[in-house]
Design brief:
Layout: H1 11-42, H2 54-65, H3 67-72, E1 73-79, E2 82-87, H4 90-110, E3 118-123
């Protein structure tokens, strides 16, 4: 009985194939890590709170300042108790800073945002629409 002839794979060929696979996996790793980071940031899991940081501030902001001022201002950053709000016009920013900061801090605290102790108003282009929570760093 003759055995069918099958080409035998040498040890050297197997080692080369292992190295090729390792190189292929190394080139895919940065993409994989980037995708995992994006998924973690954009798709909350069941254990995470749905609304945190700047999202909560933006929800309460309209109630605290009123509809007219909310149309002209947007909270953009909340860090270590300091809330930064971008305002459409410089006169409104200076008026809010001079006369309304302490009142607004109290209003926000009454609505459940006790951690804010200072509000900074800046003029500039406001983000269009409601975004998903960038700007929160703590």
């Amino acid at each position: 009985m003759n055995k069918p002839e099958t080409p035998l794979t040498s040890y050297l060929e197997l080692e080369r194939e292992k190295k090729r696979e390792q190189r292929a996996m190394m080139s895919c790793r940065p993409v994989q890590e980037g995708l995992q980071a994006l998924i973690k940031n954009l798709a909350p899991t069941r254990g995470q709170k749905k609304k945190t940081g700047i999202q909560r501030v933006r929800e309460v902001w309209t109630d605290a300042v009123g509809v007219e001022i909310a149309r002209l201002s947007t909270p953009v950053r909340y860090r270590e108790g300091v809330l930064t709000v971008t305002v459409a016009a410089a006169p409104l920013a200076s008026e809010l800073q001079a006369f309304g900061e302490k009142t607004l801090v109290g209003e926000l605290a009454e609505r459940g945002l006790e951690g804010i102790h200072t509000i900074r108003f800046q003029t500039g282009d406001r983000p269009q629409g409601r975004s998903t929570g960038e700007g929160h760093e703590s």
